[in-house]
């Protein structure tokens, strides 16, 4: 019994010492932009949550952290957003992008992702340029050309099919090209 008391006392001392000793220092989380004092509307849970005076660290193309304090957050640039509200980027699931010039308008309204309908091969190139950072615009996902038969509502931007085999071949071609 005396041996149990010695071992349990030693274990208790080791536990207290381990809890009291400082652990390894954590490195600050570093990003490109720290938005401070902003109201954040967070839709990641079951119900939207409003966080006032939050700190949002942005880098590597996205949000790295949302925190109640700036502790452990560093950035190249800090922007005070007192009185402003931040929400996640919006997605527009049905757009018709006709020109690169219109892409900035989506971003200015908080639309960070679009699904282009009735796409053409230049949309695939444009999407690659956006992802590479060569063109400023929302993330672009595009369908292929509309499948249609020749007739009164045929358009120059349609892909013409007359049979089921034509349709299957057109769909295979669109998938091969990278249309979604």
TrEMBL record:
<keyword id="KW-0732">Signal</keyword>
<dbReference type="InterPro" id="IPR051781">
    <property type="entry name" value="Metallo-dep_Hydrolase"/>
</dbReference>
<dbReference type="InterPro" id="IPR032466">
    <property type="entry name" value="Metal_Hydrolase"/>
</dbReference>
<dbReference type="GO" id="GO:0016810">
    <property type="term" value="F:hydrolase activity, acting on carbon-nitrogen (but not peptide) bonds"/>
</dbReference>
<dbReference type="InterPro" id="IPR011059">
    <property type="entry name" value="Metal-dep_hydrolase_composite"/>
</dbReference>
<feature type="signal peptide">
    <location>
        <begin position="1"/>
        <end position="20"/>
    </location>
</feature>
<protein>
    <recommendedName>
        <fullName>Amidohydrolase</fullName>
    </recommendedName>
</protein>
């Amino acid at each position: 019994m005396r041996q149990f008391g010695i071992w349990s006392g030693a274990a208790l001392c080791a536990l207290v010492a381990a809890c009291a000793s400082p652990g390894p220092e954590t490195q600050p989380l570093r990003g490109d932009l720290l938005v401070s004092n902003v109201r954040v509307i967070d839709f990641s849970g079951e119900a939207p949550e409003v966080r006032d005076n939050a700190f949002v660290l942005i880098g590597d193309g996205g949000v790295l952290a949302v925190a109640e304090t700036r502790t452990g957050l560093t950035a190249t640039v800090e922007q005070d957003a007192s009185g402003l509200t931040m929400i996640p980027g919006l997605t527009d699931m049905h757009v018709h992008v006709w020109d690169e010039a219109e892409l900035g308008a989506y971003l200015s309204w908080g639309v960070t992702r679009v699904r282009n309908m009735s796409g053409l091969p230049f949309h695939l190139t444009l999407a690659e340029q956006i992802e590479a950072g060569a063109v400023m615009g929302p993330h672009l996902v595009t369908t292929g050309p509309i499948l249609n038969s020749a007739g009164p509502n045929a358009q120059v931007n349609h892909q013409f099919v007359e049979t089921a085999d034509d349709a299957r071949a057109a769909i295979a071609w669109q998938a091969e090209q990278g249309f979604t």
